[in-house]
Specification:
With 468 residues, the chain is an alpha/beta fold. The protein folds into two domains: 50 residues, no CATH class; 296 residues, Alpha-Beta Barrel (TIM Barrel), CATH 3.20.20.140. Helix content is 30%, strand content 20%. Helix 10 crosses helix 11 and helix 11 packs antiparallel against helix 12. The chain is globular.
């Protein structure tokens, strides 16, 4: 019986997911080894029993009929008093009236008066990679080195993080776990917010290659001349060029050489899908000159599947982005204006400026110091943009369908359509309304708990003793 797939491609990742990370100083007596052997056998028995009893995350779900909800399909019209028929975790039918739906359903969920939305997707996040940002021991979003394309961030996600249930409780069903250090920090994985292990949470392990573009700013206070600073900037971009030149040369050699004689290099192995445009290259850039430099570089190299993440000044380069068909993951909604000449609300208006120019926009909360704990506020970032001009339907797509398509999972997630995963949330009002509450959630057809540290503390103190 195959319980876990641990074929991760390098020794480093295998070491990171070792079940028993004992210190090297642990005594290796015969008694100790017998103890470890017994623990391992007991663990295997427990896992086997859970699998036999149907606790596998991949166990097929029953046929369920959801009735009497206002269904926000995102990809199409909103259906009042609609129905959804789900089988084995997939959406079979969606509509106002489904033929013989009650007869085909093994279970009926009545949602009268409720709203039903696709699960929300946080397109850039360090959720699961950091617990308390002030404690180095709980930060696992960075690797040593500037160019580490063989780092897979999903391996380091902590499925027992207290912050994941908090995000889930406000409608976040999936998030992109992003590595953050160096120029090419690694490859992110798209994760569900529910699962026993990282293997069961990861729905796309190699979702995006990340590049953090070097600064293009000129410092007037620097002791170095402007020409010297310009030379340094060009050298940094040249290093990125050299890295991708080597990656392309390796991919070309791998295709041409016989498999029996070709010597693989683990660091280059994950690169071909990103070079070929099958998966996106996400370039993190905020300042206008950085965005322009990154877009022009990608155009010169004929990279078609790139995404700008961050995008604080993207509104200033809207025409360039639209011309090159570069989408933006915008995570600067709640930041202050970058210049004293900018309008006070420009960060709220930026997504609408981009949309009018023809740029696809996903809204996220970013990977900054408070990005992890603020993932739960994702719908409110979209709502703030609606208050400053972004159409409500487009704001909803910005946290569901647009990020799903950017990350190559638009055929599975992001909208409520036949054939897609039955991943959706039930609310008691408009999800973009601060007063609305997420009441229930299903991921791939299975209902998940919305309990979190916050709800536990609420229940605890709601029942506190009354002083006499």
């Amino acid at each position: 019986m195959k319980i876990f797939d641990l074929n991760l491609g390098s020794r480093r990742e295998e070491a990171q997911i070792c079940c028993f990370p004992f210190e090297k100083s642990l005594p290796t007596s015969a008694a100790t080894m017998r103890l470890l052997g017994g623990m391992t056998r007991h663990l295997a028995c427990v896992i086997g029993m859970l699998a036999l009893l149907g606790f596998s995350a991949n166990a097929p779900a029953e046929t369920i009929l959801f009735r009497h909800a206002t269904i926000h399909t995102v990809s199409g019209a909103t259906i009042e008093n609609g129905q959804i028929l789900v089988k084995d975790g997939k959406i079979l039918e969606v509509g106002e009236k489904l033929k013989n739906a009650k007869g085909r359903a093994g279970k009926i969920v009545r949602l009268k008066g409720a709203h039903l939305y696709p699960g929300l997707i946080a397109a850039t996040s360090t959720l699961g990679l950091v617990e308390v940002n002030a404690l180095r021991q709980t930060r696992d979003y960075a690797e040593v080195g500037s160019y580490t394309p063989d780092v897979f961030s999903w391996v380091s996600v902590n499925p027992d993080s207290e912050l994941i249930p908090v995000a889930r409780a406000n409608g976040i069903s999936h998030f992109l776990a992003v590595p953050t250090s160096g120029t090419v920090p690694g490859i992110s994985g798209l994760m569900a917010t529910d699962g026993w292990t990282v293997e069961t949470m990861a729905i796309k392990r190699l979702a995006a290659l990340h590049v953090r573009w070097p600064s293009m700013s000129v410092s007037a206070s620097s002791s170095r001349s402007s020409s010297a600073q310009d030379k340094t900037r060009k050298e940094r971009v040249q290093k990125i060029d050299e890295f991708f030149n080597q990656a392309e040369a390796y991919a070309k050699a791998r295709r041409a050489a016989p498999k029996a004689t070709f010597q693989t290099v683990p660091a280059w192995e994950p690169m071909p899908p990103f070079l070929a445009g099958k998966s996106p290259i996400v370039i993190h850039a905020n300042e206008l000159r950085v965005i322009k430099s990154a877009v022009e570089w990608a155009a010169a190299r004929c990279y078609k599947n790139i995404v700008i993440a961050g995008g604080r000044d993207a509104w200033r380069a809207a025409d360039l982005l639209a011309k090159n068909k570069v989408p933006v993951i915008y995570d600067s909604t709640f930041e202050q204006p970058a210049r004293d000449t900018d309008p006070y609300n420009i960060q709220f208006k930026a997504p609408e400026i981009l949309r009018k120019a023809g740029v696809k926009v996903a809204i996220s909360m970013g990977t900054g110091s408070f990005g992890t704990s603020n993932v739960r506020n994702l719908p409110y970032a979209a709502a703030q943009c609606v208050a400053h001009g972004l159409p409500e339907a487009e704001a909803l797509r910005a946290i569901t369908l647009h990020p799903a398509r950017m990350l190559g999972v638009g055929d599975r997630l992001g909208s409520i359509e036949p054939g897609k995963e039955a991943t959706f949330i039930v609310t008691d009002g408009d999800i973009l309304d601060l007063r609305a509450n997420v009441k229930r959630m299903w991921i791939a057809g299975q209902e998940v708990s919305l309990e979190s540290r916050h709800t536990k503390l609420y229940e605890k103190y709601k029942a506190r003793p009354v002083a006499k």
